[in-house]
Amino acid sequence: MPVVGDLRVLLRLRNFRRLLAVRLLSQSADGVYQVALASHVVFSPEKQASAAAIASAMAVLLLPYSLVGPFAGVLLDRWSRRQVFLYGNVLRAALACCTALLILGSVPEWLFYTSALCVTAVNRFVLAGLSAALPRVVEDERLILANSLSPTAGTLAATAGGALAFVVRLVFADSDAAVVLLGATLYLASALVSLSLPIGLLGPDPDGDRIRLGTALAVTARGLVEGLRHLAERKQAARALAAMTVIRFCYGALTVMVLMLCRYAWSGNDSEGLALLGLAVGVSGAGFFAAAVMTPWAVARLGRFRWMAVCAAAATVLEPALGLWFALPPVLVAAFVLGLVTQGSKIATDTVVQTTVEDAFRGRVFSLYDVLFNVAFVSAAAVSALLLPPDGRSAPVVIGVALLYAVVAASLFRWSRAGRNL
User: Fold this and answer.
1) Interacting residues of 135 by C-beta distance below 8 A, sequence separation 6+
2) pLDDT for 278-310, tens place per residue?
3) The pTM is what?
4) Cα–chain-centroid distance for residue 218?
5) Contact, 350 vs 147, CB < 8 A?
6) How many structural domains is the chain composed of?
7) φ, ψ for residue 102 (rounded to 5)?
8) Segment 132-162, tens digit of pLDDT
């Protein structure tokens, strides 16, 4: 198969393998850390989390990225991306250790959230940098395959990290602190692997423009305006980001619904509920893997926009058909489908942005992309909090999400006819 041959060629690229290793270790640590947070905030026996409480936690952890994201983009277009991976992961390892100490101690809730926010805020620099650096280690003709393999492998690594976190909780008597320390170890390993990459390889190209702390705010504002203007001039990239933002909103709404179902409708205790959530995340991860296999083949035959449209159309039909039962087996099938749909659309979107946005602006645009992702997810959680009953069973949420998928599918089909085969 041509895809298999291209994949072998891709994996022979030494610097691509090294960049991929940085991603895998970093995102596996993210998976470990996220399970620890979910366990401590939602599934602790002493907590009775509602949909509103879950939405509030997501807002505390994600909404500040609306400020961090553009700032990260401006710096990523000036700082060595390799150094961002090195120092960012070392910093996250240290902050994760602080989180573990806060879990063990009796501290105010806001202090715990502040620590968690710092860890995940640094994540914006690392993930945006990984996407911006990918075209520096892969030729343009293999970029769609690289976008299939690299982010999807990272997502699977996060899923595997989450599974490992469950094992650690069992071994260490449900200790969330031990899980966080495991995440810190993986962050440190990612930092060490980044040392194998040459400093100047990943860009950006040197232009003599060194940002100073005293001018950071002005540069950030100017960079944001420049990034938005550049994106507005790239119609295909802007359309892909708009469609992906709505798809992310849908995924966020259904994530909160499944979380509430696992917590209250399908389980008799907190440990069982957390295990069911882990199962749903794992099945969704399998859908992400299927997207990585299918997307290069599908994009080659349909084009990027038509493939995204097919994904959204499939979700329009299958999401209500499976979700309205509110039973575990069909919802797990839906989790697989939505994992495939979401990741397949993201792979295509990443490639559209990377191939239509100039390298000097990629850091800023991918940071804006990241902001849209987080705002969409938190907005979905807020809407779900208003509509979801305590047990998570809500036909209006399921039907409303299906309608949004239908709008996205129709728009993408129209855009694919209006432009070239994107």
Assistant:
1) 143, 354, 359, 362
2) 788 889 988 988 998 899 899 999 999 999 999
3) 0.77
4) 28
5) yes
6) 1
7) -70, -35
8) 888 889 887 788 788 878 877 888 898 889 8
350-384 burial: b if 16+ Cβ within 10 Å, else e? bbbbbbbbeeebbbbbbbbbbbbbbbbbbbbbbbb
Take residue 34 and report the two structure tokens written for it: 């996220």
Q: Does an H or E element contain 252, and which? A: helix 235-260
- 296: cis peptide before it, omega within 30°? no
Q: What is the pLDDT of residues 7-30, one digit of tens each?
A: 677 888 899 999 999 999 999 999
Dig out the tokens for 291 from the structure. Answer: 């997207």
Amino acid at site 105: G
Cα-Cα-Cα-Cα dihedral sign, residues 263, 340, 227, 123:
positive
Check residue 413 and give left, alpha or beta (phi > 0: left; psi -120 to 50: alpha): alpha
What is the Cα–Cα distance from 130 to 84, expressed in whole angstroms? 10
Find out whether 63 and 104 touch, Cβ atoms under 8 Å.
no
- Rounded Cα–Cα distance for residues 330 and 383 (Å): 23
Domain coverage including residue 127? 2-418
Determine phi and psi for 177, rounding to 5 degrees.
Answer: -65, -40
Question: Of 23-27, 212-216, 310-314, which range is least confident?
Answer: 212-216
**SS3 sequence of 151-193:** HHHHHHHHHHHHHHHHHHHHHCCCCHHHHHHHHHHHHHHHHHH
Q: Domain containing 190 — which CATH number?
A: 1.20.1250.20
**Cα–Cα distance measured from residue 284 to residue 336, given in angstroms and rounded to the nearest whole number:** 4
The letter for the amino acid at 83 is Q
